[in-house]
Structure formats: structure tokens, C-alpha cells
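SECTION: protein entry
WANTED: fold as C-alpha cells:
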Amino acid sequence: MTVYLLAGGGTAGHVNPLLALAEHIRRHEPDSTIIALGTAEGLEARLVPQRGFELSTIARLPFPRKPSLYALRFPQQYRRAVSQVRSLLRNRGVDVVVGFGGYAAAPAYRAARAEGVPFVIHEANAKPGLANKFAARHSPWVGVTFPGTPIHNAKTVGMPLRPEIEALDRAALRAEALAHFGLQPDRPTLLVTGGSLGARGINEGVYRSANLLEQAGAQVLHVWGGLTEVRQEPSANYHILQYCDRMDYAFSCADLVISRAGSTTVSELSGLGIPAIFSPYSHGNGEQAFNCRAVVEAGGALRVDDKDITPEWVSETVIPLLLDGDRLRQLSDNARTVGRLDGTAALFAMVKQAIGA
């Protein structure tokens, strides 16, 4: 029986691939033990137990980037977190650590090195985070989502995705999905989403274009998110959801998607061959612009800045594209040349190699 420690969390970009791998292990090795390592403040605190997995927590310790009282205390707190993980590795007989970045990953990598436990790194973004970047110098097993990610020992494995996305047959599910959202089968569908929080620039820009989309004969499924107050639906063919717990249905409806460029979203859309227009989140370390670069360069998607999402842009760019079946099919074909849906299995194969070594 193998004991796995999966470390990561904080944001959906770290938690979702962790859970995808955990569920893959549970399906293929039901007798194995899976422990997730995270913090009490991250999304993992809710999502991991919700999926039926054990969660062990350590202190949330952001790396200090400027002098402060916290920076002075950080080394001692970090050593305490590493010591806690080392005890966990010994007491539970952990065979391998798999890290996905985030606050829990760095102490897990350090503890694994100290205890002689092999550790595997998965980097979701095309621009790697600090924890993964530093640790990759000490592990030969580094899986990345996007080719060309600048990190040591990188091997492209893709993004671990939920099984319902990996196995999604959009054409077979389309009629059921349209009925689920109350959408019309004879209107082209634009899916708009900025993720669980939403995206103010995307939300407001497309919402102001509701009349233009209605007049063009289109319909909109708009996943608004929780960042700003949800607006009223402006027409019978403009459907607004605050959250969507059936993204497999949403993807099956979509002829075109306008979205942020998180690594999971880019991987899902390109793997499924769904034509997309990405509006990368510009803050943070700018990783979203890198995430969508390959699919845009391959002709499988377009890119737009938030400030340019205006009714004029929707009229001149979005509507003609949404109504052009030949161009949508070309975007779909091009997206599939860079997308892949086997990231979970590919990462698991790397993990088994680490255990075998």
C-alpha cells in the first residue's frame, strides 16, 4: 500500500490539480492512503474534506519580500513548519510527496529532502512560482503544464483535470446542457466567465453589449462570479449565474468563450477544442499572459485586454466570430494542436517513476 502526501493549496489553481490527482489515485489504487497538506485559510480547507480526503494543515507562511517584523520571525516559523511535515512523513510512512505550489508546498519539499522521501513537483503556470522554482533544482521529477516553462528538469505532462472534463463529449451532451440552462438550440452561445471570483472588466464589458448580442441572434451564458454584485438579466437570451457547478454543461453549450487565462481554464478549453478569447488577469506576476500564449500563437484563441472589452469590440470582433462557423471550427482544430486532456495520467506516471526510483 502506497502512502501519498499531496501538498499545495491556497487558490483554485493549486487545489484543483491536487484533487484531480487524488481522485485518480483513489480510482486506480483504492487501498492506498492519500493525505493532503495545506493551510486552514486556503480553499483546500473546504474542498479537500468535501471530496472525502484527509487534510493535514500547517501555518500559512508567505515568503517575505521586504524587511518587516514578520520577515524576522519567518525563518523560525518556517523551520517549525518543516519539522511538522517531517514528523508527518515519518509517522505516516509517506512514500512520495507531490507538490503543486502554494504555501504548503515549500515546507513539504524541504521536509521530503531531509527525510529522503522522493518528491514530485507540478507547475501549473507557464511562469513558475517561487516554491516550485527553488525546489526544482533538487528533484528530477518536475512536471509542467505548458511547454517552455522556465524551470529546472521540466517535462511537459499537461494539467491534471477533473474526470468529467477529461471524458467530456460536448456534442453528445449539448442538447441536455442547453436544456439545463434554459438556452435555445437555434442560437449560437457565448459563454462568459472570469472564474469563481469573476472578472470585473469581462463582466462589465460584455454586459454592456447585451443588446448587440441579442440583435445579432446570439445568446449568452454569463458566469458572473462573486467579486461584484450580480446584475439583472437584460434580456431573455442573456442568462446570468453567480456560480456554475456544472462547467461540463457550460462547455458543452459554448460555441465561443470569453474568459480569464488561468492555467486550468486554458488547459480545459484548448484540450476540448473550444474557441476562446482570453483576457489575462494583469496583476500578480503576470502568469496568465504566458498561460495562453501558446494557444494564441497556434491560432486556437484570441487575446484581449480588459480595457478593450467594449460594445464596439463586441460588435466588430465577437459577433462576427460567433456567427462564423468555419472560423470557429478552425480555431477549435488549432487549439487541439496544443491542448491535451491526459495531464492527470501523465503526472501519475511520473509519480510512479519517482516511487520506483
Notes: The CA atoms of residues 265 and 290 lie 13 Å apart.
